[in-house]
Design a protein that fits this description.
Number of domains of chain B: 1
Distance between the termini of chain B: 48 Å
Largest interface: A-B, 36 and 39 residues
CATH class of chain B: Alpha Beta
Order of helices and strands of chain B: EEHHEHHHHHH
Number of strands of chain A: 20
CATH architecture of chain B: 2-Layer Sandwich
Helix content of chain B: 40-55%
Structural class of chain B: mainly alpha
Strand content of chain A: 25-35%
Shape of chain B: elongated
Distance between the termini of chain A: 50 Å
Number of strands of chain B: 3
Largest sheet of chain A: 17 strands, parallel
Structural class of chain A: alpha/beta
Number of helices of chain A: 14
Low-confidence stretches of chain A: 1-15, 376-385
CATH superfamily of chain B: Potassium Channel Kv1.1, Chain A
Mean pLDDT of chain A: 85
CATH topology of chain B: Potassium Channel Kv1.1, Chain A
Oligomer: heterodimer
């Protein structure tokens, strides 16, 4: 066949067929490489001699640029050598090539404008995605050239330990879609509010372990924003006072918000407005410093729930019992999630609040529960089992009667509380199609098959398919 | 499972080495080149054979396996979950560098973004911190420098050659 011949000839002639891939793919392969590693590959062949010069991805990191950064070098020499290196790379590269992504990890000192010069070069080369990691002993001012950069669509600023960022007063990023601040301190809540709402094309805002010092309100008001993440329970925060929102109200007014993730200690007050497009919510509430009374928890939780009540997917996790109690109390908190289709719950101990949430979600189709049993409970297994045993009164719950099709229980250890929930769901789930029980890896119970057959004989109200899964 | 009366459409693909593949429509439509073939030839008959003159049977079979799994992951809402990572790791484990090259060339020709992203990342991981010689061997590149030229290049970037892994 003729076609076959051509292909085989091609293979014979073309030993270098692989490096004849389009530049874009070669660039993509090496996009995650440190720039210095790419420079090393100049010795591969003549073609590859200048590969790094037209590379649209820059990865410049003072920690990895030399394999043993501090061996035989003083800190000062290292800083100076890195500056020489970055200057040389920026000078030698083909300046007509637009930078698709630049990752820069460097030190920043008072009276030294080197960093601002680099940012200037990078913005003039139409950088699209800029990831800046700084170890700095001074506040960092977002330079005008970066703010007004027409090509920049994604910007991440991360400090080693929290530092103040001076936001501009003349407006927001022109074309930015994604903005991510990690360990950044903001001195002024009005300035932050104005800045965020002036980034008119912003799609995604992430505030991780940031410090909102003396803020009265963290006020996120944006017409375009689709994803908002406020993450204040990041570990390894080096003892710095990421106080989350202990003393500051959270206000969110984003009519186009689709996903909202809030992780950390609960704020004392919430004003969540116009969240009518919300589809996905992830709430993870941490313990507060001072143990709050039930009324406070009912108030705060009620405010959040009412604000996000339109969501279709809810992922809920409590690192503390304070917020579970109000949900478990008969008259503690009434919730109503009319659009909720999918609920993912992390469950700590007893689970009365599961029923409260099911009651408040009339259209729920899928329920996933991840049991997070405390390790120390293992020793007092039998005692705990009785202590925490709870019984669920059989009753009609709208979502169980009409909509709940799929239930998945993960990390199940075979305790009576878990089995009681299984019993209740099978008995009251009239349209249940599928139930998956994944045994936890701590499951050493020799009665596993006994438990399985016990579950299999429980009365069911629907034609449900039961699956048991072993831990990975 | 397809519903009654909605027979699944099958797309016929013919490789450079003359093999005929029958592929479910959603999987074949992952290939940008096949998709645009049908977009441009709207009235193409159902049994039209799409010629793929730059792809041979072996990589195509691998690509179909990958795309089929990923189409299913998406349908089950499993995209981005652990089982996808598990599948990807398993998929790539047995592949030689030679097979990887053939796959990436084919995925590039067929224009399958998801697979191309995955393959380029895999190749990058195999090349991280490897020597110049290793990279040459991996890509099958002939060293066309004279020894003097190569020496000069290495000297120029001397500081870049510290601490490279043994192959």
């Amino acid at each position: 066949m003729k076609m076959v011949d051509t292909v085989e000839n091609q293979k014979l002639e073309d030993g270098d067929r692989f490096s004849n891939l389009p530049d874009s793919i070669i660039h993509q392969i090496f996009s995650s490489f440190e720039t210095i590693d790419l420079i090393r590959l100049s010795a591969v062949s003549r073609n590859w001699r200048y590969l790094w010069i037209s590379m649209p991805y820059l990865n410049l990191d003072i920690n990895t640029v030399w394999s043993r950064p501090l061996a035989n070098r003083s800190f000062h020499t290292l800083i100076e050598k890195f500056k020489d290196f970055v200057n040389w790379v920026l000078m030698s590269q083909d300046s007509s090539v637009d930078i698709q992504r630049c990752r820069l990890f460097c030190y920043h000192f008072a009276q030294d404008n080197t960093l601002y010069r680099w940012i200037n070069v990078v913005t003039r080369r139409n950088v699209q995605d800029f990831d800046l990691n700084l170890v700095s002993d001074v506040p960092f001012e977002l330079p005008r050239c970066l703010i007004t950069c027409e090509s920049l669509t994604s910007f991440k600023l991360c400090f080693d330990t929290p530092r103040v960022v001076k936001l501009p007063t003349f407006g927001g990023f022109r074309r930015l879609k994604t903005l991510d601040f990690l360990r950044v301190e903001f001195p002024d809540f009005i300035l932050l509010r104005e800045f965020v709402s002036n980034c008119t094309l912003l799609d995604k805002l992430i505030l991780e372990a940031c410090i909102f010092r003396d803020f009265e309100i963290l006020d996120i008001c944006s017409t375009n924003l689709k994803i908002l993440t406020i993450h204040n329970n990041i570990e390894g925060n080096r003892g710095e006072e990421c106080d989350g929102l202990h003393n500051c109200e959270l206000k969110v007014d984003c009519p186009n918000l689709v996903a909202f993730n809030f992780l950390g200690p609960s704020a004392p007050d919430y004003s969540l407005q116009n969240l009518n497009c919300l589809k996905e919510v992830y709430l993870h509430l941490d313990s507060k410093e001072n143990f709050p009374d039930v009324d406070v928890c009912v108030y705060e939780l009620g405010k959040i729930f009412r604000g996000v009540c339109n969501t279709e997917v809810l992922k809920l996790s409590f690192d503390c019992m304070e917020f579970v109690y109000p949900l478990a109390l008969p008259n503690g908190l009434s919730v109503s999630f009319c659009n909720l289709k999918s609920l993912f719950l992390f469950v700590l101990i007893e689970a009365d609040h599961i029923i409260t949430l099911l009651n408040g979600s009339p259209n729920l189709e899928s329920l996933e529960i991840f049991y997070e049993w405390y390790e120390e409970e293992e020793e007092d297994y039998e005692y705990d089992e009785d202590y925490y045993f709870w019984q669920i009164r059989d009753r009609a719950i709208p979502c169980l009667t009409y909509h709940l099709k799929k239930v998945e229980l993960i990390n199940v250890l075979g305790r009576r509380t878990e089995l009681e929930l299984v019993r209740f769901l099978l008995k009251n789930g009239h349209v249940l199609q599928k139930m998956i029980i994944s045994w936890g890896s701590g499951f050493k119970n020799p009665r596993e098959d006994v438990l399985m057959s016990r579950v299999m004989t429980l009365p069911t109200s629907s034609n449900v398919e039961l699956t048991f899964e072993q831990p990975d | 499972m397809s519903k009654l009366g909605q027979a699944k459409r099958i797309i016929f693909l013919k490789t450079a080495d003359g093999q005929l593949f029958e592929v479910d429509e959603p999987v074949a439509m992952e290939f940008e080149i096949v998709k645009s073939f049908f977009d441009e030839n709207e009235d193409a008959a159902d049994d039209t054979v799409v010629p793929l003159p730059n792809v041979s049977a072996e990589p195509l079979a691998g690509i179909i396996e990958f795309c089929k799994a990923h189409v299913e992951f998406r349908a089950n809402g499993a995209a981005g979950k652990d089982e996808v990572k598990k599948f990807n790791a398993e998929y790539i484990k047995e592949k030689s560098n030679e097979q990887l090259k053939e796959l990436i060339l084919a995925a590039n020709y067929l224009n399958i973004k998801e697979m191309l992203d995955f393959l380029t990342e895999t190749i990058a991981n195999r090349l991280k911190n490897k020597s110049v010689e290793y990279v040459r061997a991996f890509f099958g590149i002939e060293n066309d420098f004279t020894p003097q030229e190569e020496e000069a290049v290495r000297k120029e970037y001397e500081w870049a050659f510290e601490g490279v892994d043994e192959d």
